[in-house]
Amino acid sequence: MCMGKKWDEIRIDNLEVYAHHGVFPEEKEKGQPFFVNLVLYTDTRKAGQRDDLTLSTHYGEVCHLVTEWMQQHICDLIETVAENLAAEVLGCFPLVRALDVEIRKPQAPIGLPFESVSVKIHRGWHRVYVALGSNMGDRKKYLQMGVDAMEARQDIRLEKVSSWRQTAPYGGVEQADFLNGVMEIRTLLTPRELLEYLHEVEQGADRKREVHWGPRTLDLDILLYDDLVMESEELIIPHVDMQNRDFVLGPMAEIAPWVRHPVLGLTMGQMYARLASGRQGDS
């Protein structure tokens, strides 16, 4: 979750659920009590001002969802329980932007005196901008494949899609013009998990990585991920050299002109205006 805003909190403490999670057969057969603690990060202002439950998250419904899920599923690890509950709550309650989930197991078969063991995780929605490009075959069809792939998963929400723009190829390789655009998504995936999924989508479109900056049926690149700045062998965020790419900044200025580059400090609108003025100066 983008942490620029201080979110309000709805807390659920020590919800007791009798369930059958555990590594040992007797745990799955007999079951035992579990305690769930939740912190839901959301905006309660409108609900508080208007005294209207429909503008808030119904914590009773959250409790019932957690109880039903834990009783209807069996997992070896409370780590798995926590992950699945986080995804369920975030998927079912759209006003919840992020949450903390703690699963406590007071009767874990340790054989030593203890109060409880627990796993606590933080999960939330992340705002991500993804560039799309194609210059082979039916370009619009391939770009639409990329858009449809975002709508096919519960852990990704498609928010906006720019118009398509035809642009000259970038990088000096002689090839056909590209059709480009940008989409805004919300996702529960980590950057590396999202990158892996984007590669799967590209492969589904018969993408071949044979020539650097060469022709491709579908190219999907992570441009921005919240305000994250990271560098690894397989992924760099923000995307390298995006400030000099018309086919990136044009669509970004169309759908998110106010979003700031986390390193350069300029908005997408400002960066696109600078690039456009530089082109005019060269002409």
Strand proportion: 25-35%
Helix content: 25-40%
Rg for CA atoms: 23 Å
Structural class: alpha+beta
Described by the principal axes of the CA atoms, the overall outline is elongated
| Overall mean confidence score, pLDDT | 92
Distance between the termini: 42 Å
Total beta-strand segments: 11
Number of helix segments?
8
What kind of sheet is the major sheet? 5 strands, antiparallel
Uncertain spans: none
What sequence of helices (H) and strands (E) makes up the elements? EHEHHHEEEHEEEHEEEHH
Looking at how many chains there are and whether they match, the oligomeric state comes to single chain
What does this entry look like structurally?
- 33% of the residues lie in helices and 28% in strands.
- It has 283 residues and is an alpha+beta fold.
- Strands 5, 6, 7, 8 and 9 form a five-stranded antiparallel β-sheet that branches.
- Helix 3 (59-72) packs across helix 4 and helix 7 (246-255) packs across helix 8.
- The radius of gyration is 23 Å and the shape is elongated.
- It starts with 7 loop residues before the first strand and ends with a helix.
- The model has no long low-confidence stretch (mean pLDDT 92).
How would you sum up this structure in a few lines?
With 283 residues, the protein is an alpha+beta fold. It has helices at residues 25-30, 45-50, 59-72, 78-92, 139-151, 191-204, 246-255, 268-282, and strands spanning 8-19, 32-42, 98-105, 117-124, 126-134, 156-161, 165-167, 178-187, 219-225, 230-231, 236-237.
